[in-house]
Amino acid sequence: MEGFAALYIFMLAAFAGYEVISRVPVILHTPLMSGSNFVHGVVLIGAMVALGHADPDDPVQLVIGFFAVFLGAANAAGGYIVTERMLAMFKSGGRKEGGAK
Amino acid sequence: MEGFAALYIFMLAAFAGYEVISRVPVILHTPLMSGSNFVHGVVLIGAMVALGHADPDDPVQLVIGFFAVFLGAANAAGGYIVTERMLAMFKSGGRKEGGAK
Amino acid sequence: MSSNWFVSMAYFIAAVVFILGLKAMSSPVTARRGIVWAGFAMIGATVVTFFMPGLHNVGLIVTAIVLGGGVAWWSGKTVKMTDMPQMVAIYNGMGGGAAAAIAAVELVRGAPHDGVTATLMALGAIIGAVAFAGSCVAFAKLQGIMKKAIRLPAQNNVNFFLALATFGVGLTVSYSTQASGFEVFIFFALALALGTVLVMPIGGADMPVVISLLNAFTGLAVGFEGFVLGNPALIVAGIVVGASGTLLTQLMAKAMNRPIRNIIFAPLTGAAAEGEGEAIEGTMKEFSALDAASVMRYANKVVIVPGYGMAVAGAQHKVWEMAQLLEEAGVEVVFAIHPVAGRMPGHMNVLLAEAGVPYDKIFDLEEINADFPQADVALVIGANDVVNPVARTDKSSPIYGMPILNVDMAQNVIVVKRGKGTGYSGIENALFYKDNCRMLYGSAQQAIGEVITHVKALEG
Amino acid sequence: MSSNWFVSMAYFIAAVVFILGLKAMSSPVTARRGIVWAGFAMIGATVVTFFMPGLHNVGLIVTAIVLGGGVAWWSGKTVKMTDMPQMVAIYNGMGGGAAAAIAAVELVRGAPHDGVTATLMALGAIIGAVAFAGSCVAFAKLQGIMKKAIRLPAQNNVNFFLALATFGVGLTVSYSTQASGFEVFIFFALALALGTVLVMPIGGADMPVVISLLNAFTGLAVGFEGFVLGNPALIVAGIVVGASGTLLTQLMAKAMNRPIRNIIFAPLTGAAAEGEGEAIEGTMKEFSALDAASVMRYANKVVIVPGYGMAVAGAQHKVWEMAQLLEEAGVEVVFAIHPVAGRMPGHMNVLLAEAGVPYDKIFDLEEINADFPQADVALVIGANDVVNPVARTDKSSPIYGMPILNVDMAQNVIVVKRGKGTGYSGIENALFYKDNCRMLYGSAQQAIGEVITHVKALEG
Ligand SMILES: NC(=O)c1ccc[n+]([C@@H]2O[C@H](COP(=O)([O-])OP(=O)(O)OC[C@H]3O[C@@H](n4cnc5c(N)ncnc54)[C@H](OP(=O)(O)O)[C@@H]3O)[C@@H](O)[C@H]2O)c1
Ligand SMILES: NC(=O)c1ccc[n+]([C@@H]2O[C@H](COP(=O)([O-])OP(=O)(O)OC[C@H]3O[C@@H](n4cnc5c(N)ncnc54)[C@H](OP(=O)(O)O)[C@@H]3O)[C@@H](O)[C@H]2O)c1
To answer: Hey, is the C-beta of C32 within 8 angstroms of any chain B C-beta?
Structure first.
C-alpha cells in the first residue's frame, strides 16, 4: 500500500475511533474495554496470512506462525465471549429480571 | 492510488465526518453549512493541478482549467468570508455586545 | 519525489486541520477559531501546490485565483446578513462547477483511465454540474430574480429521462479514450440541464434543504475527482462534507416532518393542504402596541419566539433593543428557538447573534419547552408553524408530529404578524384562536418599534 | 486477482462492521446486537482468509485456530464474573503476542522491507511484546498469583535503558535483510523483559488503567503489523482500538485524578499520602443491622452507593435482594454509581447488571448528585474514596478536585465496611465522622444479609 494512503487511513481511523468511543456512556465502559479488546482480535487474519506464507520447511517459522495464529484466535474468541457475557447481563426495567422467561 | 486504500479512505472519512458533525448544536447549523461549504473549496488545489497539467497549446483545456481554478478559488474565498462573518457574530453573555471594546 | 513528498505532507496536514476545524464547530466558543485554522490550512495547501513538480500555466493559475478569490471575497464581505443563504448557495455551486470542470479537463485531455476511475470521474462530473446548475437556480430564487416555481408537464418523467441520458452519455464519454470535444460538450450540457430542471419546480421556501443537499453533492463530486487526481486530501475533505451535508439535510427534513423525496419530487404547490384538517373554532383577538408594551413591562418573565417573519422584516435589532429595555425594567427575557424556525437550520441564531444577543440567553426546544407555563408572556414574532398546536393534536395535519414550542401554555401569548397569512406549510394556526392569545398586527420591524416607544413612555 | 478482490472486499466489510459494532455500544439497548454483528464479521473475515491465493500450511492454521479459540472460549465461558478483569487482560495480551509473532515470522523469513515498513514492523513488534508480557503480569497480579508490587532499585533507569536497548536492537534487526535467528531471539527477549519490568512495580489496584493502556498498545501493534502485511482491515481495527483505548485510559486517569505518567513511573507505594491533609475531628458512630433495617424500611427514598468493597465481597446479589424487599415495602430505591467506583470503569454497572438490577434504576454522578438532599438514607456499601467529602474541601488531599457523590447531604448515611480500612488512595474519610453518618461494620455480603433478615422480620 502506498505510504500516504496508509497515513490517511491511520489518521481517519484514529478520528473515527475516538469519536465513536467518546459517545459510549460510563455504564458501558467495562464492556467497551472488552469489546475493543475483541476487535483487535482481527490480528488473527494477519497471523493466518503470516503462517500461510511461512516456509513449510522452516520449523522456526512454522512454530512462531502457529503461535501467532493460536494467540490471535484466543484473543478473538475470548474477547467475544467475555464481552457477550457482560452485555447479556444488561437489562432494562421494562423486562423482568431473568430476561427471557 | 490503489482502489481498496481509496475505498477505506472514503469509508473512514464518511464516518469521521458524520460523527464530528453530529455533535454540532443546532444553534451553529447555519455556520456549519457554510463552513463545510468552505471545506470543499479545497477543490481549488485539484483545479490548480488540472490547469497546471493542461496542454499550454490547447485553448479549450486552458479555458476550462481557468474556469475550474476561478470557481474553486471563489468557493474557498467566499465560503471562508461568509462563515467567518457569521461566527464573528456569536457572542456569549460574558462579554459585552460589541465584542472587543 | 522529495518535493512531491513535501506537497503530499502539506495536503495531509490540511486534511487533518479541516476535520479539526469542523470539530471545533461543536461549540460557539471554539467555532471561530476552527474556521480560522481551516483558512490557514487552505492557504497553505494552495501555496504548496505551486511547488508541485511539472506545474505549467502558473500565470493563468495565479490570475484565476486572484480573480475568483477576489470577487468572492469582496461580495462575501459586502453582502447583507439576510442575504447569506443565497451566498452560501452560489459559493457551493462554484465548488461543484470546479469539480465538474476538473473532470472536463481530464476528458478533453483524453488520458486513459481504468474502469473505476472513469466511472468516478463521470459521476463526479455529473454531480458537480448538477450542484452548479442547481445552486445557480437556488440563488436566483432566493435573490428574487426567479420568482415562481416552474413545473414542466410530466416533470418526473423529464427528470428521469434526462438523468438517464446524462449518465449514459457521461459513462460513454469517460470510458472512451478519445471522446471528441463535441461529445464532452453534450455531456456537460445535459448535466447542467438536469441540475436546472431538478431545482426549478422547487419553491423558494424549500431552498435551504436543497442547498444543504447540493452542498453534500459538491462534497461528493470533490471526493470523486480527488480519486481521479489521486489526491487523498480532496477525497477526505470532499467525503467529510458529503457525509455532513447528508446529515444536515436529514436533520432538516426530519425537523420539518417532510421526507427529502417529497421535497424534490413532489414540491409544495402553493395552496398546499388548504381545507384539510379539523375546523378551528374561536376568534382572533387584536391587541394594541400599548397593551402589549404594558403587559410585558409588568411581567416577570417574557419568552420571545422569533420566526421567519422576523427574518423577512429584519427586525432582530429592534427585538433586542426591546428585550434590553424590558430587562432594564427588571423583566427576565429569554429567547426560544425552534430547530426549523426561519428557513435555514439555525437561521434565528445567526440573526439574533448579529443583533448582539448573547447566546446564553437563547434556548432551544428541549431546554425551554417545560418552562412556558412559568412565563407570563410568550411573544411570538413572525413565527407560525413552529408554534402551531395542531402539530400536537390533529393527526390529519401535514405538520402532525413535528415537535413545537408550547407557547400556548404561557399565561399570555402575543403574536406579531402582518395579517392572516399562513406559514410555510400553508395551514391555519389554532394558537391564534386561543383565549390567552392576542394578535399585534403589523410588520415585525414597525410593530416592535411601536412597542419600544410605549415601553419607554411607561418608564417615564 | 478476482479471489483476492473477494477477500479484500470481505475484509473491508468486516472493518465497517467493527466500527458499527463499537458504535452500537453507545447504548445498552443496542450494545449486545453490536457485538454479535462484530462476531459474525470476525468469523466471515476468518473464513474468507482461507480463500486467499497461495495460502500454505492450512492444516496447521486450522489446528491453531481450534486450539486457541477453543481454550479461550471455554475459559471465557466458565470464568466467574468477578474474574472478568484478568480475563480481559490475558486475551488482550494474546492479541499483542500475536502481533509480535507476526513480526517475528516476517523477520525470520528475512523478506526485504523499505524503511517505513521496517520501522513500523519493529515498533509493532516491541509494542505487541510489551503488551503481551505486561498483560501476563497484570493477569498474575489480579488472579492473586503475584501478590506484591516488585520494585527494582533505580527502576526508572532500568526502564529507560532497557527500552533504549530494545529499540536499538529492534530497528537494527528489522533494517538488516538477513538477521540471524539469534538476533531476532534477543530482540524479543528484550521486548518481553521490558513489558514485564514496566508492569511489575505497579500495584494491583492500578491494574485496570494499565490493562486499558495495554489494550491501546495491542491496537497500535495490530495496526502497525497491518501496514506491514498491507492489510487495511488490520490497520483500521487496530488504530480504532488504539484510539479508543487511549481515550478510555485518559478518562480513567482523569476521573481518578492521577496522571497516567504517575501511575506508570511513580506507582503508589502503599502507605501513600498518610498523615497529610487536615486532621479530621469527631468520632465514628456504630449502628446495628437492626437499626439500619428499620431506618431504611421506614424511609421514603434510599440511594445505594456501591464501591469496590461490594465487588470484593461479591455482595451484589444480596444488595439487589435487599433493594427489592424495600421496594415491596414501598420505599423508592435507586443506585448511584461514581464513574471510578470499583477498579474498572463501569465496574459497578457490570456487577449490578449481573445481579439483575435494571439499568434504569442506576444513575450516574451528574444525574443524581442534586438529589441527595431529598434522600432519607444514603447506603454506602464498600465505597470510600468516591464519597470522601475531603475531595471538595481539602486542597492538600491527593484526591482534591475529584468529583464525588455527595452522600453527606442525605438525611442519614449508613456505611457498610469491615473496619477502619482506607480506600484505594489510602486516605482518611471525613464522611465517617459526620453527625449524620453511622457505620455498619462487617463484610458487605454478611452485613447486608443481616439487614435482609431484619427487614423481613419487620415485615412480620
Ligand atoms: N429552518 C429550516 O431549516 C427550514 C427549512 C425549510 C423550511 N422550513 C419551514 O419553515 C417554517 C418555519 O416556521 P416559522 O414559524 O419560522 O415561520 P412560518 O411558519 O413560515 O411563518 C412565518 C409567519 O411570519 C409572518 N410574517 C411574514 N412576514 C412578516 C413580517 N414582515 N413581519 C411580521 N410577520 C411576518 C407570516 O404571517 P403574515 O403573512 O400574516 O405576516 C407567517 O405566518 C416551518 O414550517 C419549517 O418546516 C424551515
Ligand atoms: N473504577 C476505575 O476505573 C478505577 C481504576 C483504578 C483505580 N480506581 C480507584 O479506586 C477507588 C474506587 O473507590 P471506591 O469508593 O469504590 O473504593 P475504595 O475507595 O477503594 O474503598 C473500598 C472500601 O471498601 C471496603 N471494603 C473492602 N472489602 C470489603 C468487604 N468485603 N466488605 C465491605 N467493605 C469492604 C474497604 O474498607 P474496609 O477495609 O474497612 O472494609 C474500603 O474502604 C477510587 O479511588 C478510584 O480512583 C478506580
So the answer is: yes
